[in-house]
Amino acid sequence: MKKNINSIISVIVSAGVIAAAVPGTAAFAGEEVRTIQVAHTNYYIPYDFETEDGESDGYEVAVLRAVDELLPQYEFVFNPTTDDVLLIGVESGKYDVGTKGVWWTQARSETYVFPKNYIGASIIGIVFRAEDAEKYKSLEDFAAAEGKLVPIAPQNAQYNIIENFNANHPDTPIELLASDQFVASDAYQWVREGRYDAYFDIRTSFESNVVNEDGEYYDIADELAYVPYEGIPTWPLFNINNQELADAYDEAIEQLKENGTLEELSQQYFGYSLFDYVPEGYQQGDQL
Q1: CB 265 within 8 Å of CB 63
Q2: Does residue 228 have a cis bond before it (omega within 30 degrees)?
Q3: How many CA atoms lie within 13 A of 218 on its CB side?
Q4: How would you list the strands of the sheet with 97-102, edge to edge?
């Protein structure tokens, strides 16, 4: 009998050792696990979307799943939804965190908790006529050639990016014209027809609308080209009362950076590294 008891104790101790060696298995054994409601947009491929089977998917969703694996004190539940519902839901506390490829702004930082570490990046650059591919190798080339840029709505964060570009390139500024918001199809057509020389566009938008065979403007794909400028970091938004959760997220993200998970997921969902485009030394609040 004593031998059997010793064997049982040995098994329990061994199981404890194994659990302790595996992150997230032992630290919260027997303790209450908090359920975290995560909201994400249901359409923003490949960042965050809902599959035909109703499953949550996308780069940012995958990153948060990896974060969840490293945080045994939490269990993430994913909720696909719309932009407005996400923002209102996180602000009200219906959701603990929301992710939608969002950029940092001062106004948002007063409403939500931004973590220290961004989750990914949104690549932005110029769409121009393919015949100008040798002329425009970069946004700097476009500025030096005095190219004419499609107007940008002042409330759009892209307007600020061009303003900052001009401040950093006083000898070759881009003429920045303000405009009301318009649909992307207008911009693509304006560039194609020669009304303007380039359109400042997000890379995934160009790929979805023009490059993708199912894109609405795939028929003019051969007439347009794209050059990236920079990566604008994207962030998850935490409810104002969830600083502790945001801090835990930061610790997990640091691990995912170091072990290569973020890079692997970037390659999986985009086919390239998002982080190669973010300026070195970027700090939260930097105006790119």
Answers
A1: yes
A2: no
A3: 7
A4: 74-81, 34-41, 97-102, 224-238, 120-129, 198-202
Instruction: Inform me whether the pLDDT recorded for 9 exceeds 70.
Output: no
- Does residue 196 contact residue 182 with C-beta atoms inside 8 Å? no
Supply φ then ψ for residue 202, to 5 degrees: -75, 135
Retrieve residue 135's tokens: 């002329």
Other Cβ atoms less than 10 A from the Cβ of 27: the count is 12
Q: Helix/strand/coil (H, E, C) string of 105-146? A: CHHHHCCCECCCCCCEEEEEEEEEEHHHCCCCCCHHHHHHCC
Amino acid at site 120: G
Record the pTM.
Answer: 0.82
Q: What residues does 238 pair with on adjacent strands?
A: 97, 113
The single residue listed with the structure tokens 């004190």 is: 73
Q: Which CATH number fits domain 122-231: 3.20.20.70, 2.40.50.1020, 3.40.190.10, 3.40.50.720?
A: 3.40.190.10
CATH superfamily to which 32-113+239-270 belongs:
Periplasmic binding protein-like II (3.40.190.10)
d(CA 272, CA 237): 25
Residue 286: the pLDDT is 56
Q: pLDDT tens digits for 226-252?
A: 999 999 999 999 999 999 999 999 999
